[in-house]
Specification:
- By secondary structure, this protein is α+β, with helices and mostly antiparallel strands.
- It has a domain of 43 residues.
Length: 64
């Protein structure tokens, strides 16, 4: 995060993949968390399930 100079909160999973298992995100999955802390968008499991247009639409709905 520091190297990329990103200004957003991130989650780094533990070595047991606790978050990945809790969110059924194996091998990976895209989520958008709203300002209220709730899941605003949950994509299909990736990489084949990634839908960039759906993700972009979810972000557009949330951002002013």
């Amino acid at each position: 995060m520091a190297t990329l100079k990103l200004e957003m909160e991130t989650l780094v999973d533990d070595m047991q993949d606790t978050a990945a298992h809790a969110f059924n995100a194996m091998p990976d999955r895209l989520f958008v968390i709203g300002a209220d802390g709730r899941i605003a968008y949950r994509g299909e499991r990736g990489p084949r399930g990634f839908d960039v247009k759906d993700l972009a639409a979810a972000l557009a709905r949330l951002l002013p």
